[in-house]
Structure formats: C-alpha cells, structure tokens
Amino acid sequence: AWYQRVLFRDGSYVKVYAYTNALNRNILSVEQVKNLILEETASSDVDPIVRLYQAAFNRCPDQAGEMYWVQNSRQNNLTLNDIASSFANSKEFVDHYGVNASSPINAATLTAFYNNVLQRSPDTAGFSFWLNSGLSVGQVLQYFSESTEFKGQVKSALGNFHYDQINNTLPANL
Question: How far, in Å, CA of 167 to CA of 1, rounded?
C-alpha cells in the first residue's frame, strides 16, 4: 500500500520481498522502509508532476488528480510539457493568469511566474531571456517548474508532502 500511496504503482517483487524480510527480521524499522520508498519519488515521474501543480496552481495536487496525471503520463507516454500545456489550458490557470498554454509568454505572465513560482522578482537578464525566447506560456511554465531554483525551494516541502501521503494523512501545501 505504501508504494501505491506515493508512486501509484506496486513495488518490484525484489524490493517488496527485501523490505518485508528486513521488517520481519527487525533489520529495518517501519520508518526506515517508508523512507527508502520515499527516496524513490525523486527519481520517478511523480515529483515533476507535483512540482508542476505547485508552479501552475500554487497548491499541491489532490490524490485523485495526482494519480490521474501520473497514470495518464505512463499509459500515454505524455511528456511533462504535454502536462504543463494541459494545466495551462485549464480553467483554473486561465482564470488566474488570463492566458493559455499556446499564448506567447508576455511580461505580465512572466512577472507572475517569477513572483508565484520562484517567490522573487525577476532579474533583468533572466526576464529578458524568457521574454525573448519565443516560447509559449506552457513551455515556460514547465521550465520554471523544473528549474534548479524551484526544485531547491520545494525539496523539503515535497518530502513532507510524500511523507504525509505514505502515512495516509492529508498532505500539506508545498
């Protein structure tokens, strides 16, 4: 059940067997096994989707929404850019930003991304780069959500989010 709660899939037979054996022999505690499972989220397709929710909507995904996008991306080979475009075409996003995924990035939306996603004012060089990039709103959203800066900002909170999930409690916002 722990794998399903955070990775939306079963664990491999080898890992489940090893973890079960370690628990039964008191080699690892329940918390240690949970932490090992949680470490797998960083290299999975789950964390980028959670970060994208936070970047696009300034909130964590609900369990059903997160599961939908993770499973949909796996079954239909969706890229993160595909998902970013879907998010940026949603009513929630359009109502907040006034643009959609295919809109060219503009100064107002870019400034809002800096403020809402990176929690800072734009720097001159970065702002000029993105504004003149020729990229769409959906593409810039995806780049911001996967930036080293944003990943660093939400790393601890993302761990707490998954910890809440594995313990079947309501996750906190990033």
Answer: 10
pLDDT digits (tens, 9 = 90+) for 28-50: 888 888 878 777 766 678 899 99
Six-digit token pair at 129?
Answer: 């780069």
Phi, psi of 4, deg, nearest 5 = -65, -35
- 3-state SS string over the chain? CHHHHHHCCCCCHHHHHHHHHHHHCCCCCHHHHHHHHHHHHHHCCHHHHHHHHHHHHCCCCCHHHHHHHHHHHHHHCCCHHHHHHHHHCCHHHHHHHCCCCCCECCHHHHHHHHHHCCCCCCCHHHHHHHHCCCCEHHHHHHHHHCCHHHHHHHHHHHHHHHHHHHCCCCCCCC
Angle (deg, nearest 10), helices 80-88 and 46-57 = 20
| pLDDT tens, residue by residue, 67-122 | 899 999 989 999 999 999 999 999 999 999 999 999 999 999 999 999 999 999 99
Q: Identify the burial level of 67 via C-beta atoms within 10 angstroms of its C-beta, where 0-12 means exposed, 13-18 middle and 19 or more buried.
A: middle
